[in-house]
Design brief:
Two copies of one chain form a homodimer. With 180 residues, chain A is mostly beta strands. The first copy, chain A, has two helices and twelve strands. Chain A has a six-stranded antiparallel sheet, with no helix packed on it. Chain A is globular. Strand 1 of chain A pairs antiparallel with strand 10 (124-127) of chain B, so a sheet runs across the interface.
């Protein structure tokens, strides 16, 4: 392949006292290869989606796992991958942080406020602060999506009775939503 | 399809004085459908990758576009999609914010410090703060990747002469890097 040549290596200057800090700490560099067969990233294990809360209306969920791909003190966000098995759904919840998702596999239904979206790879959905939302697998394959999110964020909350009432009064939302 | 039934709609309570704020502002909700043929998101136009700087060693680049998918005052991060045409490459640069990329299409080479990675869909690479890095298309198809990044971040800088010298002294890095 023809390509632009790199510069010639300059003469070695070992012992120069203006050497910069190490180019990069090898341990901090991460390359996580993706396995198309298992749909997993090297070194990343699926975790439980969230703890309990099934006792509060709408906060139940079914067959969801979370893969944490990136995060930590050097980032203002975390990058997660969620996967919902056929028949599964996330909790119906709200919070003040916005959500951004990019679908990687399968077909899903996204409820956001009084809107219902059918999504597939690589659709993007931005859910604004405060909007009640739920992710539902809408097909026979796993439904998976990336979800980068602010590292500093408020916890999810259940909907109020009034909010739940307004959602179920909308026929399209009512047909799409899932309550465990 | 059999699925859990939603709750029965409660009786209407129009005029209740404890109604919450609107469930969601419709205008703030975003569903950008992805077009598999054009590899673009509805309503998102490719923009110039970055302005000039080709006069500084390593800061040149070739055939790169940026799609800004999400960002703004409600998010601590921006979500961008970069696409590098065959033969193209990003600038060789460094900054104090970390990079996180997820490949969506094509084959690429990632130089990060003195490491060189071959990447393909949906590989993940995390590049720590300060590491010199460059993205190079390594195949005949466009090489595209998502790159969520802190909204509040320092601008990219060119490498120092010492850093450039150390990179080109490594045969693998020297073979992989591109200087416009």
């Amino acid at each position: 392949m023809s390509h632009p040549a790199g510069p010639e290596p300059p003469s070695a200057q070992a012992g120069s006292c203006d050497l910069p800090e190490p180019l990069v700490e090898r341990a901090a560099l991460t390359h996580r290869k993706f396995d198309q067969t298992t749909f997993r990233w090297e070194g990343v294990s699926p975790q439980v989606y969230k703890r309990g809360e099934g006792g509060t209306a709408g906060m139940g969920w079914r067959d969801v796992v979370r893969h944490t791909l990136a995060g930590g003190e050097t980032l203002a966000f975390q990058l997660r991958y969620f996967e919902i098995a056929p028949g599964g759904f996330s909790s119906l919840e709200k919070h003040q942080h916005a959500h951004t998702i990019i679908v990687l596999r399968g077909k899903g239904t996204v409820i956001a406020g009084l809107e219902v979206f059918a999504v597939e790879p690589f659709d993007l959905v931005v859910i604004p602060p405060g909007a009640p939302h739920q992710f539902v697998n809408a097909g026979p394959e796993p439904f998976g999506f990336l979800c980068p999110v602010d590292a500093d964020r408020d916890p999810p909350r259940a909907l109020t009775d009034d909010e739940l009432r307004r959602l179920v009064q909308d026929p399209e939302v009512r047909a799409a939503m899932r309550i465990a």
